[in-house]
Design a protein that fits this description.
It is built from seven helices and eight strands; from the N terminus they run βαβααβαβαββαββα. The chain has about 260 residues and is an alpha/beta fold. The chain has one domain: Rossmann fold. Strands 1, 2, 3, 4, 5 and 6 form a six-stranded parallel sheet that branches. A two-stranded antiparallel sheet has the order 7-8. α1 crosses α6. The longest helix has 16 residues. The protein starts with a strand and ends with a helix. One of its GO terms (cellular component) is cytosol.
């Protein structure tokens, strides 16, 4: 299997840095081909801005969508952006590893998404009609590929439980799982989350790597989160709301995954 690891932590000697090295070693020992995008080590430019687009004339208005599409179609994207897109197309599975900062991914990783997910590449593809609202949410250029988050959090697991003060971890990660990953077609695996990072001693680290190793060994057999596909009958088009007979009376993030998936996470 070809695995891309997108790593977003500024300190190589951190817990995240150690887990990155563990994953690379485990994947290599299992015979997988691995590429790494270590965003801080790469000094990744996080801002999507006019200077990404060589076709823009000085003083011209910058439109992130249309200029992104124009550069993608013309092959004039910045070299580092095209290189990351090539890695995504190469990979069978993509692992995104990051600490949970202010309830989401670090800005450098969000900036990677903003720039690499160009219009025409990760979104804005496929037929748009009264019966098919683009190739997304289960379709798209990443269809057939898998993705998994490896996330660290300083709080206790109970802080991220159904009644925890931070909100359920599944809800916090929903915009990434459903929006960033499922939208362009990835099969999204349940996340691997490490809690109480400041309390990870040698024994806890050994338990963590044992558990993480088992997840890595089953990347291709783990059942993905059963998000409902957009274009195959669950949603009314073009309203893009669930049919009335699906999860009647329910609302919120959880209704966009089948019940068996909700119970298995």
């Amino acid at each position: 299997m070809k695995v891309l690891l997108v790593h977003a932590h500024p300190e190589a000697r951190s817990l995240n840095g150690s887990l990155k090295n563990f994953m690379l070693e485990r994947l290599a020992q299992s015979g997988h081909e691995v590429q790494v995008s270590d965003l801080y080590a790469m000094q990744w430019k996080a801002t999507l801005a006019a200077d990404d687009f060589s076709h823009l004339e000085p003083g011209a208005a910058f439109d992130p969508i249309t200029d992104s599409l124009r550069a993608f179609e013309a092959g004039t994207q910045r070299e580092e952006v095209a290189a990351e897109q090539a890695k995504l197309l190469w990979a069978d599975t993509v692992i995104f590893q990051f600490p949970l900062w202010w309830y989401t991914m670090p800005a450098i990783l969000k900036g990677w998404i903003d720039r690499v997910y160009a219009y025409g590449f990760a979104y804005g593809v496929g037929e748009h009609s009264d019966t098919h609202w683009g190739d997304r949410f289960g379709q798209g250029v990443m269809a057939g590929k898998r993705a998994m988050l490896v996330v660290t959090a300083g709080g206790w697991a109970s802080h991220y439980s159904a009644r925890g003060i931070n909100g359920p971890m599944d809800d916090l990660l929903f915009p990434i799982h459903h929006g960033v990953l499922y939208y362009p077609g990835f099969e999204v695996l349940p996340p691997f989350v490490v809690y109480r990072t400041d309390k990870v001693d040698a024994a806890a680290y050994a338990r963590t790597t044992d558990d993480l190793g088992r997840r890595l060994d089953t990347l291709w057999t783990t059942e993905p989160i059963a998000f409902r596909p957009q274009n195959f009958g669950d949603y009314e088009i073009p309203a893009l709301t669930l049919r009335d007979d699906i999860a009647p009376g329910e609302a919120g993030f959880a209704v966009h995954a089948a019940p068996a998936s909700r119970n298995s996470r």
